[in-house]
Amino acid sequence: MIRIFNHYLHKQTLLQVFFDVGLIVFAVIAVVLSQGGTAEQIIPFAASHGLSLAGGMFVINSATGFYQHVHNRSVTESCARALLALFLGLPLAYVIFGLLPTDAINRQLMTFAAMAAVAAVMVHRVYAAHTVSQSRNRTKILIFGSGAAAKAVGSTLAAADPHAEIIGYYAGPNEEHPEVARSALVESRGSLTDTALALGVDEIVVALSERRGGSMPLRQLLDCKLYGIRVVDIATYFEKTLAQIKVSHVNAGWLVFGDGFNQGVVRTLVKRVFDVLFSGAILVLALPLMALTAIAIRLESRGPVLYRQERVGLNGEVFEVIKFRSMRTDAEKDGTPRWATLNDDRVTRVGKFIRRVRIDELPQLFNVLRGEMSLVGPRPERQYFVDDLITKIPYYAVRHSVKPGVTGWAQVRYEYGSTIEDSVEKLQYDLYYVKNHTLFLDLLILLETVAVVLTGKGAR
Question: Beta strands 2-4 and 7-9: pairing type?
């Protein structure tokens, strides 16, 4: 894992991006060279047209979910995503290189090479997703602990990161009854440091269930770090691997003294400028779609087109969120607030569609322009549910330290849910966002939101 602007990315993801960009730029350079082009011709083509197409394909591949770290995707699904990316990428290549001046070096050949490079990128995306050996560059991890916490780390690691190899579990001094299989325990070869070095460990995850009475050998862990072995606590491990903060494994001290949670003036100003520019642009582009949606809602059922509801925003302030109405007007005729559920019978036919593709959220762009919301942030919740969840879930109020968003990290990472357990899972993603939010992460979330809309993931 590599940390870029406070956000953890898999090395494999960066390699995929660099390969795709390099392949397209290389194709452009190769054609120019084959036509006897000079350095003066190569640099402009590669810098303008080549990088423009490479950047466009990065956005398309991100929006279609090819850079998401998913290792259980079927070949059929990957092929479907590749076809969608080709449907978008080939016309883009044709337009970019079709605009070359008529006296350019063999414009037809350049355009064909660019389109071929796009096709090659997509073929490699599908190939790499299913046939590239997972054994290369695997990270060897030793879990320090053998109790419930260590077992949770092991199961999570096995499910979430195919590029990691669990060497085994090293029982702590006070852990007499391990909860992991005896066969998974590593045999001590002296100290913890000696054992880690002998096994060629790259990283140690400290997941002790008992930390009293000198069970934490700080000197040995420091020696491991001095020998180049990464040492992380269980909370940091989950943050890095799952991109969430597990409320069951953090304490107030970890949140207070750790890095992150930066809400500086510069960050706030940059985010506001970004929100105004992008939400304004999206509104202009979406106006025809919004008009058709309003007509469809009015034709299907009587009642208002827009739905207004009080939600809790920044610092607990209440504001009125605006959405397209997707439910019957008598959805809460008994006056008791209810979570929307999967296949909710209160949702209209038009409502079911606009909720699936997130069209119902578009009017919230007006909330963004008014400064009540941001494009990206934790989803705003109703006061009734907030009051209940604050008493049941630790650190729930922390999500109100930033503006709520039209989309968010929890929305692109966790499918729709309507229970307390679902709220805990979503909070753990929201805490990660609040702790690590930057413009870079906002852009990633917006790209993944496009992927969610295109694939219908987490449909409500």
Answer: antiparallel
